[in-house]
Amino acid sequence: MSKDLLEKTNFIDLPEPVRGKVRDIFDLQDRLIIVTTDRISAYDFILANGIPGKGKVLNRISEFWFGKTGGIIDNHLISTDVDDFPHEFHRYADELEGRSMLVKKTKPLEIECIVRGYLSGSGWNEYRDTGAVCEITLPKGLLESSKLDAPVFTPSTKAVDGDHDENISFERACEIIGVELANKVRETSINIYSMARDYAIDKGIIIADTKFEFGIEENTEKLILIDEVLTPDSSRFWPSDDYEPGRGQKSFDKQFVRDYLNSINWDRTPPAPGLPADIVQKTKAKYESMICYLLND
Predict the structure, then answer these.
(1) Least confident of 73-82, 89-98, 156-165
(2) Which secondary structure element, helix H or strand E, spans residue 197, and what is its range?
(3) pTM over 0.90
(4) Which residue of 104, 265, 287, 295 has the fewest C-beta atoms within 10 A of its own C-beta?
């Protein structure tokens, strides 16, 4: 196993974390420590092997965007410096450094907030069938990867173990979290996406779509941005110099892995397959390239 690969934390003298698809979360009562592992998921399944260093890329990119979005909405990030973590975590600094965050504890909203600026993925599939995405009617004659006239907010449910996320209408989102809160996260999500889209295009990157998560801070009841932000796990990134509507695009994100899984005709039932060495290395390179594109001047 590569020394750069961390697929699971194993801190024997600490409480067992809650393990998500990618993140191991340690509950400190009023705060959380989120460790971004190198696990990779696709179609809501964790694949059999991870991508070395992927967690550090996701952590660094999220930290960058938390800084850029602070003028739009507050977020849960307290520190990425392990020295600021409780002392019992310090002995695991080698595993935690570069891939962990100390964050505020929130009550996460029960929807995922997706913004689409281009027509791709499940949105493209739905448009082909109905002419709409999440009951938002779009102009006729759009192609795969077409740029939309304006970004659209297309929420989804949050999958529980064994289930899949499901696109829902804005009206259904209002039923789940309330009208006022739904309007707030729609406006905020579109504002964040628009800011990031404009920043990224100057770096040669198209952000086709992305997913945000929000939570209610326990002490203040304030809505804040949580989880990961504008990473290759939660977004579609395309090179702008190769963009052409009417086809799938080259990508710097998890779509490369999905394309591989489609090529082997995986039926999206467990057990999830492993990735061959060449796909692992190409995926690693794609993720790392986003650091160069987005974070470096």
Answers:
(1) 156-165
(2) helix 179-201
(3) yes
(4) 265
